[in-house]
Predict the structure of Sugar transporter.
Amino acid sequence: MPESPYHMIKINDRDAAKNILIRLSSKVEDEDNIKAKLLDIENTVQNDMENKTSMRELLTNSLYRRALFILTGMKILHIMNGGQAIESYMQTIIASSEKVSSIIFGAIQFPVAFLASYLLDNLGRKPLLYISTIGCAISLIAEGVYFYIQDYQRGNVAYISWIPTAGIVLFLIMSPLGVSSLPYVLMGELFPMNVKESGVTLMTFFGVIMAFVVSKFYQPVSDAWGLYTVFWIFGGVCLVGCLFTWAFLPETKGKSFGEIQNELNADGKCVRIGVISLCNKS
C-alpha cells in the first residue's frame, strides 16, 4: 500500500508524492493533470499546516467545530446502529436453525463488503447513508415488532416467524453499506492535515466510550422494558441519523481534500444549534 501523497508533501518529499500520485491516478491522465493535482495537494497542506497541530487546537479553534460536530454524530450513529442487539440475538437465531442461518449470514456479509467499497465512489456518501440508515431502521423496527408481539402481547408469532431471520439479513446488508463503514472514511476526509491525528484519536476514544455505554446498558434495558424496546431505540437512532446526514453532512464524493475543507469553511455553511455556533471562520 502506498503512502498518502498528502503525508509526503507534509514531510517535504515532493518527488515521492508525485510518484505515489501517478501510481494512484488513472492511466489516461496526462502530466498536466498530475501537476495540477500535486499543486492542489501542496496548497491544501500548506494552508492546513499554518495552524497549530495539537488536541487543544482541535477543541478550541472554531475552524474545526463543524467537522467535530458532524463526526461526533456519525460516531454515535455508528455505535448505536443496532449491531449490539443484532449480534446478541443472532446466536439464538443460529442455535435454533441448525446452522442454516449462520451460512446465510456469512454468505451475505462477504459480498456486501465489496459492494460497499464499489458504491462508495459511484453512488456517493450521502445516498449510501440514506439507504443504510433507513434499511437498518426498517430491520430493527421489524425485529422490535416481532418481539413485542411475542414477549409483551404473548401472541401467536408462527405466521411471522420469518421476520427475525429476514430482519437480520436486511441489517447485515444495509449496515456495511454506510452506517458501519463510512464514519471511518469521513474521519479521513473532514479533518484537516494539521489536526487529523488528534481528530482521529479523539473520535476513536469517543467511540470506545460509546461502545462501553451501549454494552453496559443493553442488557439492563432489555430486562426492564423488553428486547423490543432496545430494537426500537436503535431503530430510532438510525432514523435520526438519516435526518442528521441530510441536514449536516456535506457530500464529499469526487472532491479533493482541499475542496472538502473549503466547503466546510464556507461562510454559507454556518450552523447554529441553540447557543452553539458551528460557523467556521477562516
Q: What stands out?
A: Residues 148 and 228 are 5 Å apart (CA to CA). The chain has a mean pLDDT of 84.
